[in-house]
Design goal:
The chain is mainly β. It contains two helices and eleven strands. The protein has helices at residues 63-66, 135-147; strands at 14-17, 21-26, 35-39, 42-46, 50-54, 73-77, 83-87, 92-95, 104-108, 112-117, 123-127. The longest helix is centred in the C-terminal third of the chain and has 13 residues, at 135-147. The N and C termini lie close together (7 Å).
């Protein structure tokens, strides 16, 4: 089980740029989306095996990332603090940890409000404050994490 499995089954609805890249999967009802991924430098692997570096410092090269709109997230992983997202068209995004900044964060979802990669290459998560009062849901989620291989 991944800390960001809540993305599985979600469809990319938009990609926002400036000052970082934001991949939105749930626009929600407010200015800030309900569920999204913020990233800096990353790699996109496109079928049939083409690999491209993507970086917010080079917006002219973000075409492959923009093409993710309408694609569904199939699998996720945060093993080794590398965020790995695989999509329905066979493409894949990989976000490596950075010692200089938090390389990625997933914001929104339930029960986590925020999952991110720290500068020391660890994955951290914080609960949504409104879910701390929902003990049965919180307990069930923690039990599922502890049972994961």
């Amino acid at each position: 089980m991944s800390d960001v499995d809540l993305l599985v089954g979600e469809t990319v609805s938009e990609v926002r740029f400036g000052p970082s890249v934001r991949i939105v999967v749930d626009e929600g009802e407010h200015v800030e989306p309900a569920l999204y991924v913020d990233v800096g430098r990353y790699t996109i692997l496109e079928p049939p095996g083409m690999e491209r570096e993507q970086d917010e410092a080079h917006p002219e090269a973000l075409g492959p990332t923009l093409a993710l709109v309408g694609k569904q997230v199939q699998t996720t992983s945060t093993e080794g603090a590398v965020l790995d997202l695989r999509f329905s068209d066979g493409s894949r995004l990989r976000f490596q940890p950075s010692g200089d900044f938090e390389a990625w964060q997933v914001v929104g979802g339930d029960p986590w409000g925020l999952v991110w990669c720290t500068t020391d290459g660890e994955v951290e998560a914080s609960f949504r404050l409104d879910r701390l009062r929902d003990v049965p849901t919180l307990t069930a989620h923690l039990a599922s994490i502890l049972r994961a291989p």
